[in-house]
Amino acid sequence: MGLHFNQAQFSASYGLFKQIPPQDRLEIAFSGRSNVGKSSLINKVLGRKSLARVSAVPGKTVTLNFYTLGNLHLVDLPGYGYAKRARSEKERWAGLIEGYLGSERDIGLVFQLIDMRHPPTNDDLMMIGFLVETQLPFVVVLTKSDKLNRTQRNERMQALMDELPYADQITVIPFSSQTGEGVEAVRDILEELSQEYENNRTEDAD
C-alpha cells in the first residue's frame, strides 16, 4: 500500500489536551525546542511547501497540530524553551505536552529534534529523560545539518556521544530541510510504523 506523503492533510489544532478527540489512528509525535525546524521538517518529509506553517517568530506554535497521513497522525508538539513566553502560557504549554505524551494514547514514535550545530539544551535533555522514563520509543533528528562543514559535523557527532544519555542505543538522523538529507530515513521509519500498525490491526480483526 505505502504512504502517499504528498497527500497528507492538516487535520486540526488543539490548545488544551482535553480538547483532543479519541484516537482513530497511530500517532507519531515531533518534539523539539522553538525554532529547531519542526515545521520545515514536516513540510520537507511530506513534500509540501507550506502544510505546516513555518513561523518567523520563535515559540509561535502553542498548539498540538495534527496532520493526517494514511493510517497515521503526525502530531507537531509546541516548541519548548522559548524564554519570552509568559509563565501562565508556559504552564499551559507544559501541561499540553506532558498531558499528551503521558496519556494512554498509542504513540508509535517520537521524533526528537535537536539543532545539530549546538549541544543539546537542558530542555532537550529533560525531554529525552522524560521519553526514556516513560518508555516512549524515540529517534533523534539533528536539524540544520547543511549549516556545518564536514569537520564540524564529525566533531558534533563525536561530542553527541557524550552529550546524549544512552547515545549508543539511540538512532540519530542528520537532517536538512535545505538539501533533503535525512528525508528518506524519516520516511522509511514512517512507512515501517504504518505497515506494522496495519498488520496489527489486521491480526486483531481476525
CATH 2nd-level architecture:
3-Layer(aba) Sandwich
Per CATH, the superfamily is P-loop containing nucleotide triphosphate hydrolases
Question: N-to-C terminal Cα separation, in Å?
Answer: 20 Å
Write out the strand line-up for the largest beta sheet, numbering strands in chain order.
1-3-4-2-5-6-7
Number of strands: 7
Q: Major β-sheet, in short?
A: 7 strands, mixed
Number of separate domains: 1
Structural class of the secondary elements? alpha/beta
Q: Measured on Cα atoms, how large is the radius of gyration?
A: 17 Å
Any descriptors?
single chain, 206 residues, alpha/beta, Rossmann fold, 7-stranded mixed sheet, 7 strands, 35% helix
Q: How would you describe the overall organization of this protein?
A:
The chain is of the alpha/beta class. It has a single domain, classed as P-loop containing nucleotide triphosphate hydrolases (Rossmann fold), CATH 3.40.50. The chain has helices at residues 38-46, 87-101, 122-133, 150-163, 183-205, and strands at residues 9-14, 26-32, 64-69, 72-76, 107-115, 138-143, 172-174. The chain has a seven-stranded mixed β-sheet, with helices on both faces. Helix 4 (150-163) links the parallel strand 6 (138-143) and strand 7. The two termini are 20 Å apart. 34% of the residues are buried.
